[in-house]
C-alpha cells in the first residue's frame, strides 16, 4: 500500500478536496497518475497496487472517486468495483485499462463504471477527466464510444477482438507494449508513453515474442491478430 498524497483535512483555505482511490500496479504509471490528480490541490489520492490494498483503503474511508486499472496482480477489478458501488452507491468510477474487449467493457459498465479510458488513448489531462466524472460526466475513449453506439443500435460489433481460447496468456503490461508495437512505436516511445524505464521494454518484448513464438515485430503483430488479441 503506497499511502496517500495530499492533505486529508479540508486545508487552511477551507477548499473542498475530492478523495480519490487510485488502483494501478505499475509504479511509474501510478506515480504519474497520482501526481497529475494532486497537482491542483483539490484531490487527495490514496494509492493501491492491488485489490487487497484497495479493499483495505476502501474500508478505512470510502472515496468520492475510484480510478482503477482492471488487470491487477491478484485478479480482475470488476468484482471489486461492483462491491464498492454496492457499499457506497454515490462513488464514481473511472476505469483506465488496456483491456478493450466487449466482455470487459460491458462488465465494467455493469459494475458501475461511469468512464472508461483505454491506456493507449490516455488524455493529456487526467485531472480534468477525473473532475468530469465527479461532475456527472462519462468520459469514454472514442473506440469504446463507437462500440457502445453500434451495440445500442443493434449493429454487429464483430470488429471487437475475441481472443482465441488457445491464445497465449499475456500480462496487462505485455498487452500495453503489444499495442505499442502494433502502432509502430519505437522502444523509447513505448517506454515514455507507459512511464517505463527504456531498459525494461526490450525484456517485455522478448517475453511477448517467446509467448507468440515469433522473432520480429511484424510477426508478433500478425500472430496477435490471428489469435484475436488485437485488431487494427
Automatic annotation (TrEMBL):
<dbReference type="InterPro" id="IPR000792">
    <property type="entry name" value="Tscrpt_reg_LuxR_C"/>
</dbReference>
<protein>
    <submittedName>
        <fullName>DNA-binding NarL/FixJ family response regulator</fullName>
    </submittedName>
</protein>
<keyword id="KW-0804">Transcription</keyword>
<dbReference type="GO" id="GO:0000160">
    <property type="term" value="P:phosphorelay signal transduction system"/>
</dbReference>
<dbReference type="GO" id="GO:0003677">
    <property type="term" value="F:DNA binding"/>
</dbReference>
<dbReference type="InterPro" id="IPR036388">
    <property type="entry name" value="WH-like_DNA-bd_sf"/>
</dbReference>
<dbReference type="InterPro" id="IPR016032">
    <property type="entry name" value="Sig_transdc_resp-reg_C-effctor"/>
</dbReference>
<feature type="domain" description="Response regulatory">
    <location>
        <begin position="19"/>
        <end position="134"/>
    </location>
</feature>
<dbReference type="Pfam" id="PF00072">
    <property type="entry name" value="Response_reg"/>
</dbReference>
<dbReference type="Pfam" id="PF00196">
    <property type="entry name" value="GerE"/>
</dbReference>
<dbReference type="GO" id="GO:0006355">
    <property type="term" value="P:regulation of DNA-templated transcription"/>
</dbReference>
<keyword id="KW-0238">DNA-binding</keyword>
<feature type="modified residue" description="4-aspartylphosphate">
    <location>
        <position position="69"/>
    </location>
</feature>
<dbReference type="InterPro" id="IPR039420">
    <property type="entry name" value="WalR-like"/>
</dbReference>
<dbReference type="InterPro" id="IPR001789">
    <property type="entry name" value="Sig_transdc_resp-reg_receiver"/>
</dbReference>
<keyword id="KW-0805">Transcription regulation</keyword>
<dbReference type="InterPro" id="IPR011006">
    <property type="entry name" value="CheY-like_superfamily"/>
</dbReference>
<feature type="domain" description="HTH luxR-type">
    <location>
        <begin position="163"/>
        <end position="228"/>
    </location>
</feature>
<dbReference type="InterPro" id="IPR058245">
    <property type="entry name" value="NreC/VraR/RcsB-like_REC"/>
</dbReference>
<keyword id="KW-0597">Phosphoprotein</keyword>
Amino acid at each position: 500500500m503506497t499511502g496517500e498524497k495530499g492533505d486529508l483535512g479540508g486545508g487552511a483555505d477551507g477548499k473542498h478536496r475530492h478523495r480519490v482511490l487510485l488502483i494501478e500496479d505499475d509504479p511509474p504509471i501510478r506515480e504519474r497518475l497520482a501526481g497529475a490528480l494532486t497537482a491542483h490541490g483539490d484531490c487527495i489520492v490514496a494509492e493501491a497496487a492491488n485489490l487487497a490494498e484497495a479493499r483495505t483503503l476502501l474500508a478505512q474511508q470510502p472515496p468520492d472517486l475510484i480510478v482503477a486499472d482492471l488487470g491487477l496482480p491478484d485478479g480482475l477489478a470488476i468484482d471489486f468495483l461492483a462491491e464498492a458501488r454496492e457499499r457506497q452507491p454515490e462513488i464514481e468510477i473511472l476505469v483506465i485499462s488496456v483491456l478493450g474487449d466487449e466482455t470487459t467493457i460491458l462488465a465494467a459498465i455493469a459494475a458501475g463504471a461511469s468512464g472508461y479510458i483505454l491506456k493507449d488513448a490516455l488524455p493529456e489531462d487526467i485531472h480534468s477527466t477525473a473532475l468530469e466524472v465527479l461532475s456527472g460526466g462519462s468520459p469514454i475513449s472514442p473506440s469504446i464510444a463507437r462500440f457502445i453506439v453500434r451495440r445500442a443500435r443493434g449493429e454487429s460489433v464483430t470488429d471487437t477482438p475475441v481472443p482465441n481460447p488457445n491464445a497465449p496468456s499475456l500480462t496487462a503490461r505485455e498487452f500495453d507494449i503489444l499495442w505499442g508495437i502494433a502502432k509502430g512505436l519505437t522502444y523509447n516511445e513505448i517506454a515514455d508513453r507507459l512511464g517505463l524505464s527504456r531498459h525494461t521494454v526490450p525484456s517485455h518484448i522478448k517475453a511477448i515474442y517467446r509467448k507468440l513464438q515469433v522473432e520480429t515485430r511484424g510477426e508478433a503483430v500478425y500472430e496477435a491478430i490471428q489469435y484475436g488479441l488485437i485488431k487494427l
